[in-house]
C-alpha cells in the first residue's frame, strides 16, 4: 500500500509521525511507502523577510523522512504551494495512493470548531480512503490519543453500497485488529433501513466473516439519530478507530459528505477511517 501523510510541521504532527506504535500499525495493514506532504498556503508569500518557507519545510520533512525510513518505509517528500486539501488530493491521485492520513487535534474550546479546516476539507473531498488521527490538545508534548490505530474498530453501516466498500477495508485492517463492533442505526427518517433481511441478521453475517479472521466481534443495532448513536456506541466500547463510508443512501452527487459522516468525523474522540465512493470518470 502507498499512503499520503499530510503534515503542517507542528509539534502535534511531528509527534504523530514519529510515534513508533502508530507507524507499526500502518505497517501491519500493508503500508510500505509513504509520501510526506506539506503545503505552503497560497496566501503566504515567499518574500517574507528571513523566511525561506519552502527550504525550511523541506528540512523538517527530511527529518521526518529519516524517522520513517528507519522504521522501514520507503519515503518521498513533497513541499508544494496552494490550497492544502486540493494539493493533497492532487498528489494522492498522481501517485495512485491507497490511503491519505491527516492529524486533527479534535475538539476545540470554540464550540462547533472541532476539526482543523484541512482535515474537514479532506474528509469532504478525499479521492482515496482517509484516516483522521486524533492528537492531544493543549499540551507541550502532544501525542496520538489512540496510537494502536486499528486494534479495536467500530464499523458503522447503513447497508448501502458504500458501506459495503468500507467493510471491505477489513481485508487489510484485520492484520492489526483484535476486536470489532458492528453498528447499525435504524433512523426514523429512513424508511429503507428495515427493508430486506433484519439488521441483526445482516450484521451477524458480517460478524461471521470477521470471526473467521480471529477478530472478536459484537453487533449493536440501535434506533435514533445515526450520528448520535454511533458516537454513543463509541463511548461505550472505546474503539481506537471508527470505520464508515463517506456517503450513504443519498443520491445527490453534489453532496460531498453525508451529514452522518461529517458529524462523526468532526465530533468523535477516536481516530476515523473514512472510505469514499469510487471516483467517477
UniProtKB/TrEMBL annotation:
> Which Pfam families does the entry link to?
Usp
Give the matching InterPro entries.
Answer: Rossmann-like_a/b/a_fold, Universal_stress_UspA, UspA
> The UspA domain covers which part of the protein?
3-134, 150-276
Q: Which branch of life, at top level? A: Archaea
Q: Which family does it belong to?
A: Belongs to the universal stress protein A family.
List the PANTHER family. STRESS RESPONSE PROTEIN NHAX, UNIVERSAL STRESS PROTEIN UP12
Q: What is this protein called?
A: Universal stress protein
What taxonomic lineage is listed for the species of origin? Archaea, Methanobacteriati, Methanobacteriota, Stenosarchaea group, Halobacteria
